[in-house]
Design a protein that fits this description.
The chain is of the alpha/beta class and about 700 residues long. The protein folds into three domains: about 400 residues, Na+/H+ antiporter like fold; about 100 residues, Rossmann fold, CATH 3.40.50; about 130 residues, Rossmann fold, CATH 3.40.50.620. It contains 25 helices and 14 strands. The strands form three sheets. It has a ten-stranded mixed β-sheet with strand order 7-6-5-8-9-14-13-10-11-12, with helices on both faces. The chain is elongated. The N and C termini lie far apart (about 55 Å).
Length: about 700
Amino acid sequence: MQLLNIPVGSLPIEDPVLKFLLELVIILSAPLLLNKIKVPHLLGLLIAGAVVGPNGLNLLARDSSVVVTGTTGLLYIMFLAGLEIDLGDFKKNKWKSLTFTLYTFAIPFILGFTGGYYLLHFSVLTSVLFASLFSSHTLIAYPLVSKLGIAKNLSVNITVGGTMITDVLSLLVLAVCVGMTQGEVNTAFWTRLTLSMLAFSLTVLFVFPIIARWFFKKVDDKISQYIFVLVMIYLAAVLAELAGIEAIIGAFFAGLALNRLIPHASAMMNRVEFVGNAIFIPFFLISVGMLIDFTVFFKSLETLLVASVMLVASIGGKYLAAVLTQKTFRLSKDEGMLIFGMSSASAAATLAAVLVGYNIIVSETASGESVRLLSEHVLNGSILLILISCTVSSFVSMSSGQRIAEADREDTASGINRENENILIAVNYEKTVEKLVNLSLLVKARHNDDRLWALNVVNDEKNESSVKNAKKNLHIAMDTAAAADVTILPLTRYDNDVATGISNVIKEQQITDLIIGLQPDKGLTPSFVYNLHNGYLQNESVNTLIYHAGQPISTVKRYVVLIPARAEKEAGFFSSLLRVWNIAKNSGAKMSFFANQQTIEILKKVVSKSAIDLSLHIIDNWKEAEKAATGLRNDEGLIVFMARRGMISYFPQMGSIPDFLNQHVQENNFLLIYPFCDQTAEQSEKRSVNSHDDFAEIGQIIGKVFAR
């Protein structure tokens, strides 16, 4: 029977429109229905896939369209893990990740080999490959953890880093086992594998960032930029397969390569996460669910025995590894359980290894039946492992992650890690609006998504076009922020001059940070410098940031940060330093600080609490600081801590800094930061800036701000 153009009565459904509609209905309804009964929607998508798949109601076939979108979702999960990882924390915690790797690879491997060789009586080679199935992870719960806002948590950082290494090791074991069945494991095999993996790693980690930085500089179209990101994911995946490793490793490396070029607080990051979480990742979960066949577990007792060994080796081994990691690094119980939850899921690498082993025929029986490297019982047992491990991963990750997120919110509510922050962006020049908003997204605290103002001051003496210009600029500002899920409040003010209008808004809205952009291609003109000192800097209760954008802020690889002597004694120094820390955290750019010995010691204490990628350089005079700023490359920027006349850190040479910048840094991004000096009651600094113990306490507070 045919209804209009849709064939009805034959299963599985073949009409592409109806198929896609059914899949979208599943993706839409699973979270809405299951969230009410506190069941992770990830599990709902898996079960839905099993129900509508070929082993269930047979409504949908697991055809090429499902496989393609599902594969994209898997690659997307690994890409997001590499993209969102905090590289500063990753470097700081690399030994923790390696220790976790040792635990989570060795324990399940030993359990799996013991069970395979002694209980199931597999051969040594089959037992080795069988054991490697349980050492890999699939970060199926990562989107859930990221949605909870705890992706920067130490336990998540450790797990993501460990996942990359364990998956590589597991797939390396697979490659060796396959080579041994084919008699190819010799010196040439190891040489070829080593060189191919080295070439792949160098290409993705070093060549990809160069290509991406060039592309983002030359192409402004947001759609083209997103398509470029997808191209990089798939290109890295293909290169990984050419190198003899799985595509998921390539996607993870692509995330690491673009980590510094897609700021965590940016519109591009929001687009990448949105499309992945809305479409690709749910399709992957549905496609995995379609593999589940509940009937196979009742056909053979041997299948149940194999599945039982697999469950104990995989889930039991991951639990022991998580507990040992928790005890070793003195993590909280919830953090230990989150490690277990995220690492317990077995899907991608496990399924890939099982299918490869199942398709390898090592011999034949006397009756002519094929003897496979991994038997059908292992294949069926892996389906049960995928179902149960993903279920455990979803529930444990959700429950422990929610408790960690709740603890963070309690800290925020109690005032431990929340700073009263109100940012005002002056948007009088259309070409600078988007650049200023992008800077504010990096400067702001992570929790601040609704206390930003965009201001356009209109002079009463000008004609109506100024009002139209104000509306246009404010619209650009709101659209740019909205793309990153941040709300900017628009303000149009009629006043005699811009400085007066800004000053009045600062008082009305209790502004803490003022961001002003320089006109394109003009730099620090004499008229702007005059207005700066006689207008903007009269607002002594705010941090004033003067920004010049020579290129997109996401393409800046390194900042040279110049801090004058005695800057740490200023009332607003730590508040301003926090803005620099935010830029480093959100963009991944390296910060090279140039300051005297005393300031460097303070920076060491702060970075011990909140890791960023930095280098510290001791200077004895300002000429050394200027020398460091004269050799900037085209992908580097400059940040200078300034001082108003009369402040402790002010010195006469500051008057010549505008000329120096116009002469040497005109083509680069630079940011001048004037810390506040007139403290309001809310900003009052209760600590003595002369006490090193107090400096350590401030470092701890900054550390808590970024621990979320």
